[in-house]
Amino acid sequence: MALAGRGFWSLFTLVAEIGTERRGEQKNQTMVFIIISTFISLYGLIHYYVYRKIILVVPFGHWVIAACLALLVLAPLAVIILTRVGITTLTTPLAWVGYTWMGFVFLFFSCSLALDVLGLIGKAGARLWPALSNPLPWPWPQAAVIVAALAALGATGYGFFAARQINLEWVRIPTSKLPASSKPFRIVQITDLHLGLLTDEDYVRRMARAIQSVEPDVIVSTGDLMDMQADHLERFAPIFEALKPPLGKYAVTGNHEAYVGLGHARAFSERAGFTPLSYEEAKVNEWITLVGVDDPAVRNRVQIDAGSEREALASSSKAAFTVLLKHQPVVDKVSIPLFDLQLSGHTHGGQIFPFSLLSKIVYPAKWGLTRLDQDTWLYVSRGTGTWGPPIRFLAPPEITVIEVRPRASRPPS
To answer: In CATH, what number does 170-406 get?
Structure first.
């Protein structure tokens, strides 16, 4: 996993991976130390910046403020430790506080930094053109802190409710591989749901009802169905098990299935009624074939050579419309002639703007539908849930409804 451009979210994911290691697996202790140190350093530097801003408007209790911020830096790590030792009473409230704060502090940092940059530009302009007035539209720097805090608070509140909305995204794909007389084949894609400590059970039930309402032929999960701990999943299995599309439910692994442990992940997926696809194909009917591949984190974690994407695709019939289920939105150019549609997720659409700008550096594929070739498509979902901060800002969640239509039907929207 690339560290550059993904920031402390990726670093924390790697720390979390370490926190969920199974007994007997070997890890390079030096790398563990480097990863944890880097996460704490980056997250801590952001909090030091926030501390310097807070003391501009709060002239007392600086040691108390520093101590609280230090605890908030360590809160995500504490959640992992408490989960590992089984102290679940404290884990959930600490997770709500620590992760919600993570979202707020990122938004505050982004807003405040943008105002700082504008201020520097204004000061530079004032030096070049003395006739310019005060470079900021307020007379005292404390106002910038208050403006940033209010903006971040508003964005956090909005993002909290936005993350719990049900949004159906409809995509229509034309193909000559379906008979002209056949009705559209409907696939529902969910991805990056991250079932776990902070998942709202009511949201999952509403999501299931929305999926049921569109009457899909098949349901697919393109990875990260669960979060990093397997201790809080059983309440969700019956909700998914009750979804029974006529041609089945299929799932592939994401990086978080690797973190939680492949045995736990597969067991939950099967209890939820999903058929796992690991470099395998599933012929769902005469004209549609699904091929699923594992996330690279699986191979990196368990150190096995389970197969390859190209081998899995090569075995499928070229006459069928082939849907490649692949967690990360990375396209292997050699594979393009072997599939018709790739469904991916992983990026969450950035989840919290402006983090989406950093995500684009690592995963340049645009969100939504992209034409790769004359008859080959890529669809990248913004994701159905949240990871880390339980908020989404300018990156709403989605349930994707893909209709594969005979060529004579209208073009994709």
So the answer is: 3.60.21.10
**Which of 74-78, 266-270, 291-295, 358-362 has the lowest average pLDDT?**
358-362
Q: What is the CA radius of gyration of the chain?
A: 23
pLDDT in tens, 146-161: 999 999 999 999 999 9
What's the pLDDT tens digit per position in 100-129?
999 999 999 999 999 998 888 877 776 777
In the chain, domain spans: 1-162, 170-406
**pLDDT digits over 334-358, tens only?**
999 999 999 999 999 999 999 888 8
Question: Does residue 410 carry a pLDDT above 70?
Answer: no
Task: Please state the pTM of the whole predicted model.
Answer: 0.89
